[in-house]
Amino acid sequence: MFQKDADGSRKDNVDERKTSRASYSTNNQKGSVRIEDNKVKLPRIGWVKLCLHRPLMENSTIKTVTVSRTPSGKYYISILVEYENQILPIIPEKFLGLDFAMHGLYVASDEDDADYPQFLRKAEKRLARAQRRLSRRQKESRNREKQRIRVAKLHEKIANERRDFLHKKARYLADRYDAIGIEDISLKAMAKRKKDGKFSFGKSVADNGWNLFTNMLAYKLAWQGKQLIKIDKWYPSSQSCHVCGYQNNETKDLSVREWTCPKCNSHHNRDKNAAINIREEARRMSA
Ligand SMILES: [Zn+2]
User: Fold this and answer.
1) Which residues surround ligand 1, an ion (CB under 5 A)?
2) What is the pTM of this model?
3) 251-261 b/e (C-beta count within 10 Å ≥ 16 → b)
4) What residues are labeled active site?
5) Per-10-residue mean pLDDT for the chain, 287 residues long?
6) How many A from CA of 245 to the centre of ligand 1?
């Protein structure tokens, strides 16, 4: 059996702390929850109109529904369904390596860079400003409440747009490759390194949605019998020349964006070379 959220896009809790959603869940007992042409039947409440973001799988059973209200007052319902899974794993032939990129999401071995949308980055800055303004407003004042709603709306809009962007990227890659390698990096660990003065990744790390993106990739691949392969975070993807295997310790310095291999003379873009190494490591691991 395989479980899937009919509205998987609502499952991530990236900013839960900030949004403090009000929600309740209920189990489906003998048809107490039903969906019929754009209406949902809920226990106690009865029939409610809804906008279904995508149809339920055929022959699936509704297990649980969760109704939530966003801070700006919108209602969402997320539906957990269960269905028989007949997906057979495929033997991977087409591999892709992804190197995490702080500002652009990823650099891929065989694709263009992720191209994180400029409008999103701008909107994120706007949100940060709005949040600062909110923090200056007097507690319990009407202006504060107005600003709180403004912030909540902007927050939701950005989260939706980002999720949409990540879904499209993940879908695109999952459809084109049989196995995708990524580094198993813990973003928390990376953020912590900031304290010893080595890195200052700032807000973009938390906000560009790498974790959310790799989760999407994992299930979009799995639905097709494909795999996401996590490479050990200590694997020296940035230091090895992908052509001859020479290990260049000078590239431990993050400011080295390009380098020429002293052994085979290949010229490398740091991230592209890393992505190719990740792809090859994934290939080796799956063999
Ligand atoms: Zn080389």
Assistant:
1) 241, 243-244, 246, 261, 263-264, 266
2) 0.71
3) beeeeeeebeb
4) 99, 183, 271
5) 40 44 84 86 88 80 89 86 83 96 88 88 89 89 91 91 94 97 73 48 56 93 95 89 95 91 96 97 94
6) 6
